[in-house]
Amino acid sequence: MRPNCDRSGVGGSRQRQAGLSCITTIAKSPITQSSDGTYCGYGTGEDQANVLREELERHKSEGEDKFGRTTFQPVDTATQEQLEEFFEDTNYFTLNPKKRWNGIPEVPLSEKTVYNPYVNIIIGILSYFEVAARQMVPPAATLGPVEGAEGMTLNLSPEALILGTGFAEGTTPHDTLVTKLDDNKGAGNTTLDTSDVLISESSAVEDTTPQPVHDTHATKLGHIEGVDNTTVKTSPDILFLGSGDGFWPDNKLVQASKLSSKSSLKSTYRSCASPLEIKTENNCAFWDNLVQIAVYARQCFIQQENRFFVYSAILTETFIQLFQFDRAGVMYSKRINIHQHPRYFIRIILALASPDPEALGLDTSIQWYDGKRYLTMPTRAENELVRYEIENHKACFLRRAIRGRGTRCWNVIDPKTGDKYLAKDCWRSVDRTPEWELLEMAKGLEGVGQMIGYWEPEMTISSLRGIDRNTPNFRDRTFCRVLLERYGKPIHQFDNKKQLLSAFRDAIAGHRNLWNKGMLHRDISINNILIGKENAPVGSRGVVIDLDMAILLNREGSLAGVDFRTGTRIFQTIMVFQSQMKQKPGTIFPAHDYLDDLESCFYVPCWIWFAYDGPGLLVHPQPRFLCFWGELNPAMASNSKFVFFSQICAS
């Protein structure tokens, strides 16, 4: 029997709807912070590092011996014969009498004395293997417009659209970093099977392909933080630049950053393939270094939007260590002695600068084509692909944390019909009920977002890492894309008071409809309440969306326990905040139920009233107490809302 508890969690009773309780089993997971951040964003790189330290602390793991050593096979990067030719043709490495990369000091006086030698060696490796001259046309780039296109041919299965699927049995993305130079069919070819890779001749890209590696230890790269915070800047020591249709084109980077010179855009997180950091053995502290490059990787996820994972590496005068950041956290290799194992080092460098977008962790179903950005997924009929144009070239919403759901939402247009939809990408825990199943149950409900279709290509983090999903201390996630009806703007972007109140009323009614259908939402926020379509009838003037965190209810199980990881921080309830704080032994918190959701609903108009002076008039700077609502410190967040309620009651 469940004990009766009041909202303080120390006794009393709480009336509940009789018999409704959760049947969905949600496995326990370690409680950790998230670097998604507040609406005010992080003020410094150090602030980000502190949160990432907590976010990744229980979600870091050492890869198997093959990770970093045999991850990248000879056919993927360089054959044994090509490596021996490199040593013979260049003077970057001395094989005899002493194995050593030339120029790298054995005992560097400072970190700065290692920068230039490493940059020169890396440039030499990439130049010898002609990485700068190989611009890959990835599989999804050959889709053309797909539907409504002219002169383009598609030879691609839906299962092969996204990294990690459509490969030979027993292989992983680490095993498929393939660049088949002997299969080059010419830059004009528009037919490409997933087993082939198209690479342009060096003469075709000689004047347009930027140098793939930059020394950026003294270059400040801008961050994107919170709602409108772009003041934070950091400096990776070395930056590998990405090229091809998966990365933002130079002309779009100019427009996006309002800069006049393309040369000033060469080093940005938006164009970063892999960030590297250089240390000396004297100042190389594993955990601090990991957090430092995690800051860089997080910006790659945020600014590029279409990354499944990000490679990075730590270099010293003796060792290299490889890292893979993804939605399950971070996996790292053992430290590899670059002088004793120069061939491993070369292959890792070639992989980090690979022209293959899949090898770099890009979602190849999202591509640039003829100045526009597109998203491709199978819909309408089995094995039929539709390519949707992405409005404004970028995601309309994204979560900023590394580990977690990694939600991305895209406003898209069907090229054939002109219909507008919302595409949502998400990495859910493999033990959670898929959102599309809940959306199927919600079909026809007023005030609830409606699904058009979904795509779940059986791609998991374990497959991206090449590990067993049952690896200890590892929680696997699987990718899913859902196509939804497009409604109006998020509720905080209202045009007038009547529209705001009507949308809010119908969204709450939609929440009740979900409850009556046996579902509890658990993630009410300003981004999950949308204004209805133009001239929508009563009941659909506002809709509640995003059932990622929703649970199913019936009479036999129990409601899921309150959990501060569930929901959007700034709209979480006081009870959720208190569940994160240390309590006296025996303290029991009631389960998360509809009362928590209704309290979150209350914070939505409160946030709008204080954050805006009127429609579209955001207050600058944001009221400090709203920033406190999003505080990661649960005591500060809880106290701020207590004070807020006290002032309301006193007024």
UniProtKB/TrEMBL annotation:
Domain Fungal-type protein kinase per the UniProt entry, residue ranges: 257-453, 472-609
Coiled coil: none
Record PROSITE patterns: PROTEIN_KINASE_TYR
Superkingdom classification of source: Eukaryota
Cross-referenced Gene3D superfamilies: Transferase(Phosphotransferase) domain 1
SUPFAM superfamilies tied to this protein: Protein kinase-like (PK-like) (SSF56112)
Gene Ontology molecular function: any one: protein kinase activity
Matches recorded under InterPro entries: Kinase-like_dom_sf (IPR011009), Pkinase_fungal (IPR040976), Tyr_kinase_AS (IPR008266)
Pfam families reported in the protein's UniProt record: Pkinase_fungal (PF17667)
Protein name (Swiss-Prot/TrEMBL): Predicted protein
